[in-house]
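To whoever is on call:

I kicked off a structure prediction for a single chain this morning and the downstream step that reads the tokens threw a length-mismatch warning. I double-checked the sequence; it's 84 residues and nothing unusual in it as far as I can see. Pasting both halves so you can look.
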Amino acid sequence: MQCASLVDQTLIVTEWKVIESDLPVAYLVPTSENRFVDTWWAFSPQFFEQLFRIVGKPRVRSMPHEQLHASGELRPQYTVVGER
């Protein structure tokens, strides 16, 4: 929301795809069991698609792709672009 207030034309988000859902989902990653400290939130692409429309970027496109992870393997990612 704060980033959207700073840009006039285009918002771009790229994330690792860890959620398999058609819904706009966000969840808290760390638990008392997994003790993750490097990742706080995970989001579905639909989350950003919906958010971009809410903040005034109605032209939205989402692109799945793969990126090389530090482990050396290709992992799924997505990029969502929202434009005024």
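Update from on-call: the warning came from a stale cache, not from the record. Cleared it. Sanity check on the structure: The chain has a mean pLDDT of 94.
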